[in-house]
């Protein structure tokens, strides 16, 4: 049977999703945003998993690694999962990105727009578009951060802290 590129991408997506869920519960495994690409970050997570679960550390997904990831995932899914919204590492959000994390950023910016007059309301659509980047630059100015329009860990932490202060001041 021929193994198509679409099948390969689907398998990489599946294994990266399982590893992401495992990483949320096991701090020795780096959390990697699930995708269809076998990135160097995913290979690092695979190596960390293999090391943690006494498998040969190759960074490749063979049958033994696949089976162990599936078994560990299923064993852990009954436990509560902490809400870890922002990915680990040097992950950034920027113009052109899409997804749930962008929705979170847009919603947090909207919460802050109710308090800060130089921020404006966005239409949360999950797309890091020009308006989102502009609103982020305005937020970064308020937070005394470099005005890049990009969400990195520092900007994310400031954004979360500002939103948390709103909650505390209500």
Walk me through this protein's architecture.
The protein has 170 residues and is mainly α. The protein folds into two domains: 5-76, no CATH class; 100-169, no CATH class. 54% of the residues lie in helices and 0% in strands. It is built from six helices and no strands. It has helices at 5-25, 40-52, 63-76, 100-113, 130-142, 153-169. Helix 4 (100-113) crosses helix 6 (153-169). The longest helix has 21 residues, at 5-25. The radius of gyration is 19 Å and the shape is elongated.
Helix-strand layout with pairing:
Blueprint: H1 5-25, H2 40-52, H3 63-76, H4 100-113, H5 130-142, H6 153-169
Helix pairs in contact: 1-3, 4-6
What is the 3D form? elongated
Strands, count: 0
Radius of gyration from the alpha-carbon trace, in angstroms: 19 Å
How big a fraction of the residues is strand? under 5%
SSE-based structural type = mainly alpha
